[in-house]
What we know:
- The chain is α+β, with helices and mostly antiparallel strands.
- The chain contains 13 helices and 20 strands.
- It has a 7-stranded antiparallel sheet, sandwiched between helices. Strands 14-15-20-17-18 form a 5-stranded antiparallel sheet, with helices on one face.
- A hairpin with a 2-residue loop joins strand 6 and strand 7 (164-165).
- It is globular, with a radius of gyration of 24 Å.
Amino acid sequence: MAKTNYIDPITVSIIDNRLDTIAEEMGKTMLRTSRSPIFSEARDFAAAIFDREIRLVAQKPYIAVLMGTTPFVVRAIAKCYEGDINEGDVYLVNDPYKGGNNHLPDFTMAKPVFEHGTLAFWSVAKGHLADIGGTGTAGYNPLAVNIWEEGIRIPPVKLYDRGNYQRSIWDMIIANVRQNQLVEGDIHCLVGAVTLGERRLLELIEKYGMTTLDQAADSVLNATECQVRNEIGNIPDGVYYAERFMDNDGFDRGKMVKVGLKLIVEEATITFDYSSSDPQVKGYVNSTLANTYSSSYLALFTTIDPNIRHNEGAFRPVKIVAPEGTVVNCLEPAPCNTCTICAASTIIESAWLALSQAVPELTQAAWARSSTPVSMGFNPRIGKFYSDVHFFPKGGAGATFGFDGWDHMGVVICTGRSRAPDPELHELADPFYTLSYEYLQDSPGAGTWRGGMGTKYIFRVEADGIVSNNFGDGLLSETAPFGLVGGKGAKPSTLRIIKANGEIIDPEVHKYVTLNKGDIYEVLETGGGGYGDPLKRPIEMVWADVRNEMISIESALNDYGVMIDPQTLKVDYAKTDELRNK
């Protein structure tokens, strides 16, 4: 660790919290000024601050899987424009191969912050755009066999050069997307966020000066590194192996895609070695290196102390081995747009499963994976095209020692930070009518602490020619949420479409389906895995779940050994004791 000059720890704490607050304010600005519901409702964005040495000193990842991706992008920008980084510049990147990004839908904006002509900070914002061109729905094309078929690729470019608006770049981007007003608005939203970050950072520089801020950054990063090393030191040294799978890649539907992980804990460092993972595949489930790094960080930081800052210092004790050409470090031009959903969830699950062998009391059972449609088309109600991800069907979180899983949480890559949309606002923007939106009974895995509840989401289509694609997975028993320490796993999620003529269609995963007026789409999103022996769950808690219709009387009997009278809903304690003793 680098040595630093002494600085008052109270000042360090104030500066640290101020940097964190600036990143949070940037995120709230995006929330208020965006046009897309992916920003304004789901909060699929992140904000970050880097110092002059391109060290991540603060961030607010509203979507947690974005926490480790921005360093790759800022380093790519700095390398590409070395010697040509000027005050007033604003850079845009979405390319994972030329710009270090995670996947094309996430546009990353970066603005250098200068103090008296010297580079002092970088203000960075990243957000998921509703349209990136190509033939995909909301950026997801299950037929893509290379990245060019997934959407527009933007290596590091200047949207503003020394404060001058680069119209040719803007026009090129807008000409390649269908929903140009929506996209242009959200790009302006990102520019606004980094500009706000610049303003607040200049205020901070004026108050403290760069010498103090540099010393504070050193102190914060070193302290965070010590925290993480101490936490890793509580994990027994050893080698732990686990593997998890994705349903398929959209082309070879009979073959699951493996993420194999050897987790090595030694001398307060932790190594994620993915060398046993499958080679990169034809379809768009491949993971970029930035996404694999970030998913690994998320798995670790959701296991150790949750109060640790996710900055450069936190990343220092973590090593990643991801061989080129594998599904966790795909090479150009492999498609990769679902990496933040399918691959990320699988990476996190493999890490948790490995960690559970070392510290089961700190590890969570698996969360429900995302298995939900994205759709695009014309909404006759408002006379406009729309593009949206259906964020309603949120699955349950996995249970852990001492706690049931959280209900209705969504995919693990968001760690519960992705908000559920307002059904009425959703119906105004999109051509759908919500028929059912409720907890899905018997969805959680049983355990001493049960998994969180999944959801039952059913909607009716109100327009013709809507293109839909289920871009998630978790529809197989092998990819359903696992339980831990004797807890049961949850059932797979299920989907079906009931056409207006009564025909029933299985939308599967990674497959285009055309929806027309009167069609009904059903999404039964599963719950999280359970933790601990279900027979040790207190009888009163089982009874309460039955009374609240979260689990059925049959589940209470078969999973928990609790006999409940279906007429009176009273527990037969004598029969229950007999069943549990067996």
